[in-house]
Amino acid sequence: MTTPEPDDGPVTFLNIFEIPREDVGAFRAGWVERIRLVEGAPGFRGAHLLEALSDDERFQLVNVTQWDSRAAQEAATGGPQLRASVADARADQRQRVTPNPGFYRVAATATPDRP
């Protein structure tokens, strides 16, 4: 068995956000706009924005996007329109956020036994 190369796909991009609860709504709206900029890109498989159930959670939002490869994600997110949108979000005081991004692949899987 060979170990896959770091860029072999598929990959999942996670960005776990520390964000004040009162900023979540503005961030969510911007996330929807930014996802629309990449959803038709080659290699894009899907996206979710997960929101904490409790106001007390350290990480209120988790961005999860699936891609055919890391190269596909980087190509799709490297365009000027998306970069400008991200820069605008970072400058927006209604979205005080600390991102924690990274690429991941499935390391193990568990599924329920079903008859």
Instruction: Enumerate the spans where pLDDT stays under 50 for 5 or more consecutive residues.
Output: none
Q: Looking across the biggest beta sheet, what order are the strands in?
A: 2-3-1-4
Strand content: 15-25%
Percent helix range? 25-40%
Q: What is the CA-atom radius of gyration, in angstroms?
A: 16 Å
Structural class: alpha+beta
Mean pLDDT: 89
The number of distinct helices, counting runs of at least 4 residues, comes to: 3
The tally of beta strands, per DSSP, is 4
Cα end-to-end separation: 31 Å
The major pleated sheet works out as: 4 strands, antiparallel
Shape designation = globular
> H/E order of the elements?
EHEEHHE
Keywords: Monooxygenase, Oxidoreductase
GO molecular function, one term: monooxygenase activity
Pfam family, one: ABM
Domain ABM: 12-86
Q: What keywords describe this structure?
A:
single chain, 115 residues, alpha+beta, four-stranded antiparallel β-sheet, 3 helices, 4 strands
What topology emerges from the helices and strands here?
Elements: E1 11-17, H1 24-38, E2 44-51, E3 61-67, H2 70-77, H3 80-91, E4 101-104
Antiparallel strand pairs: 1-3, 1-4, 2-3
Helix pairs in contact: 1-3
Domain ABM: 12-86
Pfam families: ABM (PF03992)
GO molecular function: monooxygenase activity
Give a verbal description of the structure.
It comes from Actinomycetospora endophytica. It holds the Pfam family ABM. Keywords: Monooxygenase, Oxidoreductase. One of its GO terms (molecular function) is monooxygenase activity. This protein has 115 residues and is an alpha+beta fold. It has a domain of 65 residues. Helix content is 30%, strand content 23%. The protein is built from 3 helices and 4 strands. The protein has a 4-stranded antiparallel β-sheet with strand order 2-3-1-4, with helices on one face. The longest helix is centred in the first third of the chain and has 15 residues. It is globular, with a radius of gyration of 16 Å. The model has no long low-confidence stretch (mean pLDDT 89).
